[in-house]
Amino acid sequence: MPRITVARTSADATVAVDRIACDGRGLCAALLPERIGLDEWGYPVVDPRPLDRGTALEAVRICPVRALYLREEAAAPDARAKAASSGR
Amino acid sequence: MSVLTAPASTRVIDLVAESGLTGRGGGSFPVHRKLTAAVGRRPRLVVNACEGEPWSVKDRWIVENDPGPLLAGATALARAVGARRVLLAVHEGSPTHRAAERLDLDGHGIELLGAPGGYVASEASALVSFLDGGPAVPVTHRAPLAVGDRRHPAAVVQNAETVYRVGQLLDRGVDWFRRHGTPDEPGPRFFSLSGAVAGGPRVVEAGAGVGLAELVAAVGGYTEPVRAVLASGWSGSWLGWAEAGLVPWSDEGLRPLGAGVGNGIVHLLPASVCPLVAVGAQLDALARASAGQCGPCLFGLPAVADDWRRLTAGEPGVLDRLRRRLGLLPGRGGCHHPDGAARNAASALRVFADHLPTHAQGGGRSAGRPACPATRGV
Ligand code: SF4
Ligand code: SF4
């Protein structure tokens, strides 16, 4: 998975959770309360509205198991597809 | 270069696109899109005949009774997407598995993939994980499976009936195909009828838009009075018997009732079965079936099943908590397993709300003199 380039911090982004990887320690909610809450079992409830990319990245970086990620719009699936097809 | 023959891949995929065929496994996703995404990636083609839903028997029927179009469809799709391997996935030791062993799979270049039993093992990404040497549980895939990633290269997973329809389509043409169903949901499709039907579960072939009365008549009518219908199985939606008979059975017709045709399961719940007990048993089973990987599924499903038990026992104050928890399940698992459980429970609340007081008055099953007249379980 290509990491997000920091050069594009001006744009907006949305965060998403890899549910299988997430272990519910809730660090992301502490850092990004304006978009992430926790359910009664401690797992994140994500508000899908876009936010400043830089702020989102900070939260992404704090997740200890890399379960939190930026959801790329439009352009990104292609980049991922290319990486995937050359991957193997 | 011949102008008469387009590359085989384009022709088959164009035909599938023109036919309007959608996935018959429950997702109703346009088939050609998945195919197009996989072209050029040398994908694996997985024909999914697992049928994790206990009352689904259509894929088994195909393998046992009419495998020709299935094998033809698999061969054509494999060529269209340039598949490097073709696999027929069945639950290990199932009747479908035994029937598949009698087919000439070798002659068609198809391998048999015997996946472990279980509800979530037949989920598309679980099959891919198993195929790649991992456990048969859903895996994270931020890119579509048909595109693939480093850990799980491209795989096109199609339900067995979907592949069977492709085989028919290539043989009989788009016009024949589109004569069935509705303009938006074209083509023949299988329904699996179970519950209050003789010798069920039974398979009926019809098109989207068919009436429930027609489906039930096709299996010789119902065997006892029916209270409700479960559309698309345990991960589907409950409908009242009367309302279910008034709408066309298509996604469009069922949408106002919060349901869809899905995998084609039509389960008739007898009036003699307590619906609250039936739903409770399904929620328990769905909670046990969780692969236990995702918090909202691991903790949410047992919590919802427990709420259901308390609710039906008449415990006050549970309904609000249950509704809140049901709202927290959809879209919060690695696969759609929690979404299905939430759909089942939420639709059951809508359809069976009037039964709650009656049932609770008698304390459900445990009381000496239950007010609920329907005492049978599932
Ligand atoms: S920080 Fe990561 S692991 Fe912790 S709750 Fe958030 S997404 Fe899950
Ligand atoms: S949602 Fe449940 S069944 Fe699906 S991957 Fe997560 S734990 Fe497994």
From TrEMBL, chain A:
Pfam families tied to this protein: Fer4_15 (PF13459)
Gene3D superfamilies: 3.30.70.20
Lineage: superkingdom: Bacteria
The protein's name in its UniProt record: Ferredoxin
UniProtKB/TrEMBL annotation, chain B:
Limits of the NADH-ubiquinone oxidoreductase 51kDa subunit iron-sulphur binding domain: 284-357
Pfam families for this protein: Complex1_51K, NADH_4Fe-4S
GO MF: 4 iron, 4 sulfur cluster binding; metal ion binding
Spans annotated as Disordered: 358-378
InterPro entries (UniProt xref): Nuo51_FMN-bd (IPR011538), Nuo51_FMN-bd_sf (IPR037225), Nuop51_4Fe4S-bd (IPR019575), Nuop51_4Fe4S-bd_sf (IPR037207)
Keywords: 4Fe-4S, Iron, Iron-sulfur, Metal-binding, Ubiquinone
NADH-ubiquinone oxidoreductase 51kDa subunit FMN-binding domain mapped to chain residues: 16-166
SUPFAM superfamilies referenced in this protein's UniProt entry, alphabetically: Nqo1 FMN-binding domain-like (SSF142019), Nqo1 middle domain-like (SSF142984), Nqo1C-terminal domain-like (SSF140490)
The family this protein is said to belong to: Belongs to the complex I 51 kDa subunit family.
The name this protein goes by in its record: NADH:ubiquinone oxidoreductase subunit F (NADH-binding)
